[in-house]
């Protein structure tokens, strides 16, 4: 009985290839649609492309609370998020990003 999870590296590669979701495709979409000036995405699924953490810096997050920022990103990546298992964005403004860089956070 299959649980749908990849049990081998070969299976993980097939899952990643069928979803079509890659770090670069996510970055490109966020930069194009949100005007993100910085996007860092980490595949947390061991390479199978099913779980991602992201840091997104965009001026479109100005004057928005955390929930509104996440909703904006999630609506931008609606199709992509539907094809993956987990998506965890950290959405920050350029000013917040510069401040974090000064104190050494990401």
What would you say about this model in short?
The chain is built from 5 helices and 3 strands, in the order ααββααβα. The chain has 106 residues and is an alpha+beta fold. A 3-stranded mixed beta sheet has the order 1-2-3.
What topology does this entry show?
Blueprint: H1 9-19, H2 23-34, E1 38-43, E2 51-57, H3 66-76, H4 78-83, E3 86-92, H5 94-103
Parallel strand pairs: 2-3
Antiparallel strand pairs: 1-2
Notes on the protein architecture:
With 106 residues, this protein is an alpha+beta fold. The chain contains 5 helices and 3 strands, in the order H-H-E-E-H-H-E-H. A 3-stranded mixed sheet has the order 1-2-3.
Series of secondary-structure elements, N-terminal to C-terminal: HHEEHHEH
Approximate strand percentage: 15-25%
Strand order within the widest beta sheet: 1-2-3
Largest β-sheet summary: 3 strands, mixed
> In one word, what is the shape?
globular
Radius of gyration: 15 Å
Termini separation: 41 Å
Helix/strand/pairing category: alpha+beta
Helix content: 40-55%
Number of DSSP strands? 3
Uncertain stretches: 1-6
The average pLDDT is 85
Number of helical regions: 5
Key words describing this protein structure:
single chain; 106 residues; 47% helix; 3 strands
């Amino acid at each position: 009985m299959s649980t749908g999870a990849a049990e081998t590296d070969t299976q993980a590669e097939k899952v990643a290839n069928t979803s079509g979701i890659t770090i670069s495709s996510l970055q490109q979409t966020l930069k194009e649609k949100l005007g993100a000036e910085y996007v860092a995405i980490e595949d947390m699924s061991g390479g199978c492309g099913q779980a991602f953490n992201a840091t997104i810096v965009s001026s479109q997050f100005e004057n928005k609370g955390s929930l509104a920022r996440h909703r904006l990103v999630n609506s931008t990546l609606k199709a992509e998020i539907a094809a993956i298992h987990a998506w965890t964005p950290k959405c920050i403004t350029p000013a917040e990003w510069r401040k974090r860089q000064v104190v050494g956070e990401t």
